[in-house]
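Z., the sequence and structure:
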Amino acid sequence: MSQKSELRADAPIGVFDSGVGGLTVAREIMRQIPNEKIIYFGDTARVPYGSKSKETVTRYSRQIVRFLQTFSVKTIVVACNTASAYALDALEQETDIPVLGVVKPGAKTAAEVTKNGRIGVIATDATIGSQIYTKYIKELNRDVTIYGKACPLFVPLVEEGLLEDPVTDEIARRYLAELIDIDIDTLILGCTHYPLIRSTLARIMGDQVTLVNPAYETAYELKQMLADRKLLKEEEHKLGTDQYQFYVSDGADKFKRFANSIIKYGILSAKTINIEEY
């Protein structure tokens, strides 16, 4: 995609998602490695990815990577489970900077924490259909059983801001009933939107089930990777500089309102760009 270039510690981290869900990953990066600069892109014009084909999601992801590379980012975090499942391999092969997805870190943690070997995965249709979590978890622990459950309505509910709402509660109870019945002890929140309704999911599943948040695990792995490559930004950012920049493909005002409600680090603006140009 681009010629080989020297990666710099003071360069930003690129983060992208189909919409607002990836903000849960960006929020964890802000918490865990606060000196880093972030360029975030939310593909709000083309959300959701979970019902689209592998070819389409891969094409969208390539466009976004080309856009992020205009900022000379030092790494790209695919903060979307569907894009991680469908496009990560292609992006890793075509891009000369490290690319991290959100699936492997979550799978690794789930394989480690389960006691009874029954792991549930809730995600979009595409992520469940790809069997990507099953593949990674089985590579780490062959003796577990993975139960996938597509929960397509969670993304629009989150995008509409219905985080604490009777409607979300009712839908969650219906989706999770069968996972409760088969006695899972670990549940992977296999879509980056889902941590935003974590308290609802935790209440319904009960204390005996460990919830795995891939957003947290991805930020942790990112920090380790940057440290290993000597790419961690050491100095603190200066006030008045654009430490966090947000771009979307549509609906910047709506995105900005939502982002400000979940990230307390001050999102002053979000710019709309035409992603089809990349």
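The beta strands are 13-17, 38-42, 75-78, 99-101, 118-123, 145-150, 186-189, 210-212, 244-248, 271-272. The chain has two domains: 13-101+217-277, 104-214.

Let me know what you think.
H.
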